[in-house]
Specification:
Layout (H helix, E strand, L loop, with lengths): L1 E5 L3 E7 L13 E7 L1 H11 L5 E7 H14 L2 E7 L4 E8 L4 E5 L8 H12 L7 E5 L10 H11 L3 E5 L2 H8 L5 E2 L3 H8 L6 H12 L5 E5 L5 E5 L2 E5 L12 H11 L6 H17 L9 H8 L4 E4 L1
Parallel strand pairs: 1-4, 1-8, 2-6, 4-5, 8-9, 9-10, 10-11
Antiparallel strand pairs: 2-3, 6-7, 11-12, 12-13, 13-14
Amino acid sequence: MIKTVTLNAAIDKTVEVNDFRVGAVNRITKLQLDAGGKGINVSKVIQALNGESVAVGILAGRNGEYIQAEIERRGISHDFLFVQGETRINLKVVDPMNSTFTDINEPGTLVTDEELNQLEGKIFNGLGSDSSLVLSGSVPNSVSSLIYRHWLERAKLLGVKTFLDADGELLREGLKAKPFLVKPNLHELERLVGKDLSRLEDVEGAARNLLKQGSEMIVVSMGADGAIFAYQDKVIYAEGLPIEVKSTVGAGDAMVAALTQVTEGENYLERAVRWSVATSAAQVTTSGTQPPELSKVLYYFDRVNYRVLA
């Protein structure tokens, strides 16, 4: 069983605006609505890879009802907790003419301690040593930055395989629980270490240092510049694939989804590299946060180029 957790769900409203200008009237040429939030995006891509997951999280209001209906339409199992308020709408502005992608995200719904306890019950219901738990994304302002660390520690006591994709204090504290896999992007990693990582060897060094804190695998996504994978005593650099980008939203979530599907064993790291890079590449060729088609993932799978770093 794989459970994905989304504390800050959203409707992703993606609009295309040619030559988007700040302070000017902009005309939308295309609009798309998607059920979003990082954990939900992971669940959508897991399904695209013919896997199964249970999407757990907090929803509210009519926007929350829309997200739940969309998840049900896709046939994804879920166990959402509805609270007072309204689930946010995140605006994604895509400018095809200038190849820019602008995010305008609303704050999340306020959540009480009692509601968090209810959600925790849903998260850990049925979890065991054959399960995986994905904690990803931001949390509402009312939720402590210790929450992921707490859940990761509890999950590890049960023998659950844990995945963390977070930023700021959520990431810093979550690392203390020593999750199996941590996937920061380059900017999140730079904020974590407190300095620019402009060279590949700088990113490699930071990834190796994170491994020393107790996680088994560190994956650093760097957009078009590829990704770094550190596992045990081995580090691999995967090149970015030459693709036409339609939307960068969900690329990291697609990578996490693929990593949950790769079983450990012979050539584990190499298989993880190919699947995650191919899935992320396929994701950014789709509009909005629509999951990629498996055929497109398989197309990119054999085109992933990587090398082991000494």
